[in-house]
Amino acid sequence: MECAVFATEIGWMAAAASAGRLKRLTIGDPSRAAAVRSLWAAAPRTSRDSAGSLRWLEDPKAESNWWSELMERLQAYAAGEVVCFDSIDLDLDHATRFQRRVLDACRRIPLGSTSTYGELALAAGAPGSARAVGNVMARNTCPIVIPCHRVVQSGGRLGGFSAPRGVHLKRELLAMEARAVGALPLLSGC
């Protein structure tokens, strides 16, 4: 598994990928070291036990077009640009069928929009399972690419967010997206 850490305007990010599929992403850390710790802490125990199989990339952008594209998109997004992540392949092998349906439905929430946990449950074909959807969102391994920050409680309350700075970062991401979408005459495909 390859890992990279890089700075963005919303803090440091760390990513892990295998065979061109994103496995894990951490966002909003205050330092390079904190991002590495976040990625390590979020890794399943089996990955931590086989740390020798992790390869930290010195210059990810020079490593491959895949890494270059991923990092450029995430940095552009963090700078407030409209960016689509639809074509980023994800490794969701750890997810159950239900979790995959929820994560896929979450990926379809348009930039600049929100959905409630109940609406996301309905979109995933599991009406009445808002609490289970909340658990899936809390364990999302690829925030931003799977935009769990766009999922809010009924009544518009923000709910939680497990990234550093918690709900403050969630609010910042939603405001940034609203500004980006507001600056566009027409948004399609994101």
What does this 3D model show about the protein?
The chain has 190 residues and is an alpha/beta fold. The chain has two domains: 2-78; 97-182, Winged helix-like DNA-binding domain superfamily/Winged helix DNA-binding domain (Arc Repressor Mutant, subunit A, Orthogonal Bundle), CATH 1.10.10. Helices cover 41% and strands 16% of the residues. The protein has a four-stranded mixed beta sheet with strand order 3-2-1-4. It has a two-stranded parallel sheet with strand order 5-6. β2 and β3 form a beta hairpin. The protein is globular, with a radius of gyration of 16 Å. 32% of the residues are buried.
Furnish the topology, listing elements before pairings.
Blueprint: E1 2-8, E2 11-18, E3 21-29, H1 32-42, H2 45-49, E4 55-56, H3 60-63, H4 65-78, H5 97-107, E5 115-116, H6 117-123, H7 130-138, E6 151-152, H8 166-182
Parallel strand pairs: 1-4, 5-6
Antiparallel strand pairs: 1-2, 2-3
